[in-house]
Amino acid sequence: MINIHNLHFVTGGFRAEALLAYQEIIMDAQIPLISTGVSTGVFTDNVRVWHNRYKYFFRIMPLNSTVLAIELLSYYLNLEDYLNTTYGATTLRCAILREDLA
Fold this sequence. Notes:
With 102 residues, the protein is mainly α. The protein contains five helices and three strands, in the order H-E-H-E-H-H-E-H. It has helices at 2-5, 16-28, 42-49, 51-54, 65-87; strands spanning 10-12, 33-35, 57-59. The protein has a three-stranded parallel sheet with strand order 1-2-3. Helix 2 links the parallel strand 1 and strand 2 (33-35). It is elongated.
């Protein structure tokens, strides 16, 4: 992808384990990588600690794992109120499957 298409930037990086696999290659090529979904802090920590190496990495969303969790919980609480009002339900059960793949 990098050598054949002469890219100006790369976007993607939703899953941490996938991003770990190709981030180094993109950083070697010194091409901006705009991450669109990975919330694992290791990627932005790399920018802070080894800035010269990872200065081409940008994460536009989510801000981080904590902010993402707060947003999800807020959504679920609002969803519970909506479903209780709309359908007369008294209990909404949900579970959060947390992955730490990095």
